[in-house]
Amino acid sequence: MSIITVEGLSKLYPIAVKEAGFAGTLKHFWKRTYRTVAAVRDVSFQIEPGEVVGFLGPNGAGKTTTLKMLTGLIHPSAGKVRVADHIPFRRESKFLQKITLVMGQKQQLLWDLPALDSLKINAAVYGIPDKIFAYRLAELTEMLKLEDKLSQPVRKLSLGERMKAELLAALLHQPQILFMDEPTLGLDINAQVAVRDFLQQYNQQYGATIILTSHYMADITALCRRVLLIYEGGLIYDGSLEGLLEKFAPYREVRVELAQSIPELVAAQSSALLSGLQTYGELASVDGQSVRFLVRREELTKTVSRILAELEVIDLTVTDPPIEEVIGRVFRAGSVS
Ligand SMILES: Nc1ncnc2c1ncn2[C@@H]1O[C@H](COP(=O)(O)OP(=O)(O)OP(=O)(O)O)[C@@H](O)[C@H]1O
């Protein structure tokens, strides 16, 4: 049975509209007019226990709003949500015991106190008995490699250590469902990898379900087999990362290592050859001896044969374009149809 079921979920926000100038300000003061913004529009999906699902979408797409409705922080304008057999907005204590929400840009640990003090407060709030608290604390501290950090005031921790301590605080009550909104925001590469590895281990060890938003594609590719693509409040894709490439990238990337560098070709006045390069596909980049083309999938075999016959080639590889490039194109195009 699905652990999360969402049907026709929408969230509308009323936004006050003010006309420009002093007269507009006065009018706004006496009589406000509003327009409605649909932050989330008619979204439906189901998530099974133990899945790790990535929410992708540009800024303002509606990811955080969806997470807030799934965790019961805000009430949906329309639609149905069930999470672990609860209606989130009721915020029943049994429900809160089963979930956690971590927001990369917000913190729950108290700044001037050692993280351990905040953890003890959390344990009391969730009614965790002392023995279980000690056991979970030891286990999570080891998994997160935070051994000597928890007794220092939070303000003295590095950003990466602080994020790991935040995760520890969020997981002390051993929730079944983890909602992670940008958990690696602002972290350096090593700290990003540490958080990512931890989430993977936590998912495998406890069979926890993880819903993750991140602007770092590496988080999504490392952790999520399934992605939901959200665009202007609507769900435009639900499936595997590979399927996303097939749907939105009808081309493949061909990297060619030429025998001569491009400046040498220019010096040898092979400008005809240079302009001829564009006939193989869209030129993605030219750097020294290597050239990257984007070639439509259906033209791949013909184009590769032409390149090998017509150019002096040292090496040629065909790959899928980087996923962030594909998604960037989809969003820049302003249309996803
Ligand atoms: N409390 C609010 N009142 C009015 N509009 C809001 C409110 N919260 C969000 N919005 C609007 O709803 C839309 C979706 O916002 P949301 O924060 O869900 O996007 P997001 O996908 O999480 O973006 P980001 O990647 O930038 O965090 C945006 O247009 C935003 O301005």
UniProtKB/TrEMBL annotation:
<keyword id="KW-0813">Transport</keyword>
<keyword id="KW-0067">ATP-binding</keyword>
<dbReference type="GO" id="GO:0005524">
    <property type="term" value="F:ATP binding"/>
</dbReference>
<dbReference type="InterPro" id="IPR003439">
    <property type="entry name" value="ABC_transporter-like_ATP-bd"/>
</dbReference>
<dbReference type="InterPro" id="IPR017871">
    <property type="entry name" value="ABC_transporter-like_CS"/>
</dbReference>
<dbReference type="Pfam" id="PF00005">
    <property type="entry name" value="ABC_tran"/>
</dbReference>
<dbReference type="GO" id="GO:0016887">
    <property type="term" value="F:ATP hydrolysis activity"/>
</dbReference>
<dbReference type="InterPro" id="IPR003593">
    <property type="entry name" value="AAA+_ATPase"/>
</dbReference>
<feature type="domain" description="ABC transporter">
    <location>
        <begin position="24"/>
        <end position="257"/>
    </location>
</feature>
<protein>
    <submittedName>
        <fullName>ATP-binding cassette domain-containing protein</fullName>
    </submittedName>
</protein>
<dbReference type="InterPro" id="IPR027417">
    <property type="entry name" value="P-loop_NTPase"/>
</dbReference>
<dbReference type="InterPro" id="IPR050763">
    <property type="entry name" value="ABC_transporter_ATP-binding"/>
</dbReference>
<keyword id="KW-0547">Nucleotide-binding</keyword>
